[in-house]
Structures are given as structure tokens and as C-alpha cells.
Amino acid sequence: MVDRGASALSFPSDWPAHPDPILALNRMGSFDWDLDSGQFHMDARAHEIFDLRPDEYDGDPAALAVRVPPAEAVRLDEMVSQAIKDGSENYGAYFRLRLRDGTLRWTHTQGYIRRDGTGRPRRIVGIVRDATDELHDLAARRDEPDLDDARREQTNVVQLTTAALAHARTVHDVIDVLKDTQGLTHLGATSLVMGLVEAGRIRLIAEGPEGSFVPGTLVTRIDEPYPMSEVVRTLTPRFIESPEEFAAGYPVLWPHLTDLKITSAAYLPLIVQARPIGAMGLLYSDRRGFPPEDRNILVALGSSIAQSLQRAMFYEQEKDIAQGLQQAMLPRTIPSVAGADVAVRYRAATIGGSPGRDIGGDWYDLIPLPGGTPSGAGRVGAVIGDVQGHDTHAAAVMGQLRIVLRAYAAEGHTPATVMARASVFLHELDTDRFATCLYAEADLSTGVVQVVRAGHIDPLLRGPDGTCRRLPVPGGLPLGLSAEFGSLDYPVGTVELDPGHTLLLCTDGLVEQPGADLDDGMRALAALIAAGPEDVRKLADQLIEVAEERGGDDDVALLLLRRRGPDGPQAGSRLQQHVAPGDPEALSEARHMIRAAVRTWGARDRSDEIELVADELITNALMHTEGAAIVTLRVLTGTEHRLRVEVEDSSSALPRRREAGESGVSGRGLMLVDLLADEWGVEARGGGKCVWCEFVMPEQS
Questions:
Q1: Which listed site, 254, 293, 344, 574, has its alpha carbon 20 to 30 Å from 523?
Q2: Which candidate, 9, 618, 519, places its Cα nearest to that of 311?
Q3: Contacts of 355 by beta carbon, 8 Å cutoff, 6+ apart
Q4: Per-residue pLDDT reduced to its tens digit, 341-389
Q5: What does the pLDDT look like over 520-555, one tens digit per residue?
Q6: Are 310 and 272 a contacting pair, CB within 8 Å?
Q7: How far is 356 from 315, CA to CA, in rounded Å?
Q8: What gap in Å lies between CA 539 and CA 344, rounded to an integer?
Q9: Model-level pTM?
């Protein structure tokens, strides 16, 4: 399991005897709160901040009541309890201490919640520091009865912004909070600019109002004569109090800002653990100067923004790694199956909290089996499975398990042996995870399907008339557990898949709903399938749309396999070409293949249309993705003779129709496809997608 309480703050093993020197240099005290024993340990600096001698404090948090006023204690307790309940990683707050001489001192605390493998909070470590100099003027004004409305509004904005930042998960979320109507711009700023430090340069991520972007500042060096570069170099805020000061200090930048009527600006370094991660600038058009209290507010808020940005950057980094791992572990392509229509779909969970938890261990696979046609059709294995957990570990285990299942099945073992060997493999992998799985081996020439189940939910069967029912299949223990408990018996169930029938395999994320049991969920899913379209691709899209609308904290994988009738469309001729980016010869060969196939297969009358559409799809795949394109042409015969063109790439981003301007050179691609093809659409393929189109061909005489 992932230690969801792990954070950027790390304490040495001999703490508190030797506190982190960085904390000492920054005049911060540290604490370690054992939630099991209740002991609240503090280092020497923390004792000084709380104005307590070592002999006055025995580690019991209740002893701090002599320094923390009751109202402050209640507020802090509520905040910590809420952070633990919400699954948060950290919390922070300003509060007041009453010293032994009776005076009040502003103090700031930041705590990081450590959890065990089950997610239970076990320990809180953190820091406390004297915030008197930072917030004294603000606190004094807050206590004065004549506090003016403007200052009250500023304080309220700070509190609202800090609270909103606690829920920001991505860098864009942080920027959205700051640009929101309740964000920093309501401190009176005209616009916001922000940049992140990357490899010794500053990359602009928020550029102020429309039309204010300064050419050449998207990426700048830290040694360039710009205010954000300066505050990153010096780690010191820069308050520019007049246009004259701005023009004199930054003559390269100022001419580009004159149209914005800027009268003053505040540039703040965004610092985390004594390291700059970026800079932020607030530009004003209706004020001059920054009183000390305003500076203190902005500096304090800059610290909260920096913490939120670093948390968001960590989240995005882990999410990118997790999504890349998930895409690599799912099948790159699903083979065509003679005698069947197949559709697969995957939807990642959307889970708040720790980064990387919006992936999981759900997977699907379709395996050509020995004994079929040379292309592997005729006999095929269909797999659906779910490894316990929602993290990168679950995805890694899933990838290994998928590979060994495919290997055992392709070797020709019986379904029961395939499942038993996979269970032994997972047990010997020495992981703490188990997996549920369902494996169906289908002979499409006879319609006989043998099914084995390892703790997974039952499959469903839809008839040509739209009726849908659950197929009770005897099962064994989940993979990994069966080997552990010495029970490798997986009974085999037999299902007759008649022409026109559709077999549906899915993971429990498509079935389970909060407050409903599994049987109710299966009945609701069966009703949804019965009312859905007959085409398996459209039905799969509809089911995933329902899962998206429902949301939830579990990912979804599904596989639909429909056996064609004897008069249904059969896969005919098939050609495929791999086109690598930057390889003009491969692109030329693909065009030649398309031209030759179209003429050979009797579509000469539509040759130009097919070539134009195929060329557009290939070009889009190469221009808008970072990988290669796989071009497939096949003939479908049935009530209509059709030629199908498929272009597959590694990007999951869907193509979108754009309106081209009068002089535009792009934006007409999908318009051409829609105009020239009889049908077209997009299918998910593992970690990428397939854009396809079909053309009705003239009847052969």
C-alpha cells in the first residue's frame, strides 16, 4: 500500500535530540504527535515558542492549555480533526499563544499526517514558528473596533483563498483559485502573472489579462532583467510602488506594460524548504505603495501558494507516471476476430486525495488461441480482471499478471489450468495484492464458451431480441489467495453463444453503486444493456458514459464479444502498414498500399475519396501525437460490401472538429471525413485510440 501520509517534510531517526538544522536556521521548532499513545513531543525550539520550560511539559497535549487560549484550542482541534477525516496530507494555521507574562503571540503551525498501509492516521509531524513580526499589525487591527471595511475584506480574501488552495490538486487548479472572483485579484490587483522554475529557467504559466503577454517571456533565464527572475535569484519579495520605479528598475519590460496603466506591482518568490519553485506577480492599476501590513499579508499568502503549488506539481508528476504505466500495461491493440464483433473500454477512477490514485489494476485482454485460423481467429480467449488497489503498484501487478495469463492461454492450456497457474504466479510474486479474474475461452465456429471465475463477478449474456441475463458461473478463490490457501480448484462452466448473442465481461466498477448491493447492481446493468444499441461499439460507449456520469472511486474495464450469424458481415481481405513519424518512405508506402488495395478490391469509383480520407487520418495522427500510426484496411461483406479504414495512434485525446477561417490552412480534416465517408467514429485501443471510417463499395458483378 502507498504511505499516503508521506510528505516533503522528513525527520531524522534521532529526532528530537538532533533537530533538522534547516528548521533551526529558520527559527522553527518541530513536533512529533503519536496519535496512538497521545504523546506530543517537542524539540527545544518548540518549547521556547510555547514559552515552556522542559520541566513544565511532560508530553501531554492537555498541558499546552496553559498557553493556548480555549477558543484557539477548539479551532485547532476542529481543523486537525477535519484534516484527518478528509484524508488530507497536511494542514496549516495561524493561532495565538498567551505567554507567561500574559501577552499574546501570533504563531504558525504546519502539520503533516502520516498514515499506515490501511490509511489509518498514526502520527503527525510538523513545525511551529513565531509569526509575531509577520502578523502583529494585522492581528492588532483585527482586534481594534474601528477596523475599516477594506482591511476586513482583504483578511477575508486571504482566508477564503487559503481554504480554497487546500483543495487544489493540479497547477491549473491553483491558478484558477487565484483568478477566481474570490481570489487574489480581489485584493485590488489588476492581473496575475506566475512562473515555475524548471531546469534553471522560469516558465510562464499564468500571463495576466488577455493581450498582456510580453513576447519572449514565455521561458526566461533566471539571470535576465525581469522582476520574477530577480525574486527567484534573491529569494526576496520586490514591491514596486510607482510607474517611475517600475520603468527605472525594469526598462526592458516596462514598455510592454504601459497600455495596462500599471501603477504598482508586488512580485513574490514562491519558496518551499528554502528552495525557489517559482515566482508570482500582482499588478495594480489603482494604487501606489504597500504599507507594512499589506506586505505581510502578501508574503504570508505567498507561502501558502508555494506549498499548494508544490503539492500540485508532485500530484501531476505522479499522475503522469501512473497514467503512463497504466497505458503501458493495457493491451496496445485488440486483434480482429473472424466470426465476432469485439469492443473493449477502460475508464480510470477519479479519486480525491493522494496523487496517483486515479489509476488501478483493472484490465481486459483478447487472446488468439491455437487451433483457429492462421490469424488466430476461430478460438479466442477473453479476459477481464481486477487487481486489488488503486495505485501504481496495482497497475504494475496487473501488467505482470496479464502477460502470464496471455502466455498460459496461448500455450494451449485448459481454462482451469490457466487460472490455477496464474494464481500460483501471483502468490509467488510475493506481493500483498490479490486479484479477481474471469477467463472465457470461445470457439466461434461452434459457439461453445468455457468460463472459469476467480472471485470475479459473473458475466452477462444479451440475446438478439435485446433480453439480457446474468450467467451464474461456478468459481474459485481470487488469484493469489487460492494458492495461499491451497485451493487451486477452478470449476469450468459452459455457455452456448448462439449467433447474434453478446457476451459481456466487466469489472465491479461498472456494477457497484453506493448504498446498493451487488445483485441490485447486476440487475440494473442488465436492464441498461437490454435497452442499449445492438452494435457492440456503441453499446460499450454508452456503458462507459454511464460510468463517467456516475463517477465513483473505482476504475472500470469491460469487454463485449458478439458472435456473428452466418449471414452477418465476415472479415475479408486485410492489409496493415506501420507509419513512423518523420519517415517519408513509410508514409509513401502507406499511400501506395491504399491506392492498390482500393483498386484491387473493386472500389475504383470511390478511389479518390478513400485515398483523401485515409491520408487525412494518417496526417492527423502523425501531426497531433508523438508516436507512430498503424493503418489497417479491411473488406467487410454482408448486406453491403464495405471497405473499412482504421488509423491507430498512441494518444487517448479524441479528435475534435474545428472551424477553419477563411484563410486558415487547417481545421477542415474532420469535415472532409464526415463529408466523404459513409460512417466514421473513434474507438479506445488500450492506451490510445483508433479513428475509423467505412465506405460502401459497388456490388461486384
A1: 344
A2: 9
A3: 169, 314, 315, 316, 317, 318, 319, 322
A4: 999 988 876 554 444 445 667 888 999 887 544 333 468 999 999 988 7
A5: 889 999 999 999 998 999 999 999 888 888 776 678
A6: yes
A7: 7
A8: 10
A9: 0.47
